[in-house]
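User: Now give one protein:

AI:
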Amino acid sequence: MAPITDDAVNELKKLVSKLEGRINELEGRLDGRGKGGGSVSDAAQGMRMILMGPPGAGKGTQAPKIKEKYCVCHLATGDMLREQVSKKTPLGREAKKIMDAGGLVSDEIMINMIKNQLETNSECSNGFILDGFPRTVTQAQKLDEMLHSKQQNLLHAIELQIPDSLLVARITGRLVHPASGRSYHKIFNPPKQNMTDDVTGEPLIQRSDDNEATLSKRLATYHDQTSPVVGYYQKTGIWKGIDASQEPGQVWRSLLGIFEGGAGAGGQKHGSSILNKLGLKN
């Protein structure tokens, strides 16, 4: 009998790992049904996340793709605040009074808006992407407290990292679809038709504050606020950084690597036991 080559062993290990990952996913779904709840996939469990990054890092490009692939809600806090105000909800009316007086909307109001979305927005039943919040360590702590009260916790805090010097070209060429938040770029990620959203065919806009002078101020504020928040999530072990200077497709693959890598780690215990039985464990 010919000896088994190293390549064959490695291929078998990969196959076993994939099979065990699939088994774990199915076991998780069965466990969910056994507890009287709906089946919840590993992917949905892994989508309680925040997405951080400076203006122009690509959050508006990547968040809708995450939302579509994993069927979760995208909570961009700025858009959420404007929606509450326009609908004249109790939270919206309270926030409008504060903004009209020149004040900043309190952390409590923002947390309650997020909580309201999680409880009333059907898209949030499989998980959520938070974009634009938290901006301070205090907000991060209050968010954790709110989620813990719902017996949940954040599973990913992903930061899109990019040098400030590369952001000017990105920002000044950015185009946005106001209704969905989808973003494009005149050079790097143009729409199929000029100034037209690929999905709806509606017009795109260029935001008035997407200019170099405004960007410099926003970046300074972002770095001052975000560095402590990054440190907070690094301590919890859920932070991951991604090089956002890459082309959007590679950034997307990096994101998938984080999500799928998390699921794969859950299958390692069973995978290791099978490899041991086969005598292939290193």
In short: The first helix runs from residue 6 to 34. The first strand starts at residue 48 and ends at 52.
